[in-house]
Amino acid sequence: MAGFPPDSGYLRTALEQGWIGLIIVCLYLYMIMHYSITNYFKARDDVDKLLLIGLAGAFFAVVVGQYAQEATGLFESAIMIYAFTGITIKTRYLLSPNKKTV
């Protein structure tokens, strides 16, 4: 990629890893958005809903930001993305159906 400036994070992924790598990255991003939105609708507590919709909104901003520039390539943003992923997946198991909302 010497001399070719990829502005988009998706273009950089396609150039470095090929189309299969791009499909895997897009599936990963889709799955995290899917988990956060479905867990939002399954949540009964307002705090859990607020956490999940906040994570979904921030993750959506990163996914859209990938079109204009490489948003997930930096070390700091990669830590944020992986933390969002872990919280989103773990929240599914922490949702208690017996918890009453006020």
Estimate the global geometry from the Cα principal axes. elongated
Mean pLDDT: 84
Q: Unreliable stretches, pLDDT < 50, 5 or more residues?
A: none
**Residues in helix, %:** over 70%
- Summed up, the helix count is 3
Largest sheet: none
Task: Provide an overview of this structure.
This protein is mainly alpha-helical. It has three helices and no strands. The protein has helices at residues 9-42, 46-68, 75-94. The model has no long low-confidence stretch (mean pLDDT 84).
Helices and strands in order:
Elements: H1 9-42, H2 46-68, H3 75-94
Helix pairs in contact: 1-2, 1-3, 2-3
Tell me briefly what this model is.
With 102 residues, this protein is mostly helical. It has 3 helices and no strands.
Question: Which descriptors apply to this entry?
Answer:
102 residues; mainly alpha; 3 helices
